[in-house]
Amino acid sequence: MAVNYSVPAYFILILLFISRIRSTVGKSKPSTNFPPPNLLTLDFSERIRTDPLAIESASSDYGNIVHENPAAVLHPSSPQDIVSLIKFAYNNSDVGGEQLWIDVLKATMEHGLAPVAWTDYLYLTVGGTLSNAGISGQSFRYGPQISNVYEMDVVTGKGELVTCSPHKNSELFYAVLGGLGQFGIITRARIAIEPAPKRVKWVRMLYSDFSAFTKDQERLIAINGRRQSSALDYVEGSLLMNQGPPNNWRSSFFPSSDIPRIMSLVTQHGIIYCLEVAKYYDDSTQHSVPKELEQMYKGLSFISGFKLEKDVSFMDFLDRVRNGELKLQSQGLWDVPHPWLNLFLPKSRISDFNSGVFQDIVLKRNITTGPVLIYPMNRNK
Description:
This protein has twelve helices and 14 strands.
């Protein structure tokens, strides 16, 4: 019997290219900027730093591509400090909220709660990701982070502190969310939270056929979008290529005993597509989750024998990229320029992207050592 599934309108691809060697691209130059003399006479002047350490710490973007020394660095103690600075500078500064998502997670977990939408990497600011989108494997179900905001305080380009929501100053609200900081600076956000689970069943399945891989992604986000009570909580995808080992800096998921046979598979096919899912659970659902996952596996077309599972704490799952970051830092590789490219692709062109980019460019030219991620998305989220 044929079953029709609603399919996602588009996929998002995240390609992170990390240089094999250190590059001189974007090296910072000695600062020729000097703060306006009257800047240090403002009420918050004691929170303005011009020392070399402060200047250096704020001189590079996250991807370590752009290097520009600021004239001074403000460490705001309240939204009012940002209001005062914007009024002083008027359209000449670009700052964001300072709270990290990892800190939000830790604070809410103390009360048995957690936000519903995340990014894969948690050491980013709330204001920063809400000024972009905030996409991860949970987005098929809850939408990106910007779809889970109820209210914000925003400092506008005129230095006005404005509270906005879908029902109050809504034009500003929707302009700021995903607005890349062009319409205001987020200083407070009220976000959706829910009871936090205790543990996670984390599963990866391997495919040699891209069409089977994407069809299974589409199927999973369609059926799990309808059955909310037993839905998967996370669906993502990635590439395994012969340029690097299956375990990359994002996570060390695969057991060492399975690495040889996985590498043999990658060598045979050039690219292996990895479908990654997760199901959260707690004491009340720990016995039903394995049965739900087994039922899900029956309809999938992964390579026989290449379904691997882990059971981890909720915190360890969400913070899974951190260990890889620390490993790269210890090797002096975290500060290597690493451009990060996000692309939204329509479902109708995803196969063309695989053949034209993954197969003909990434694989044949051996140009990347960084992860390539594929997120299936539902249009209505």
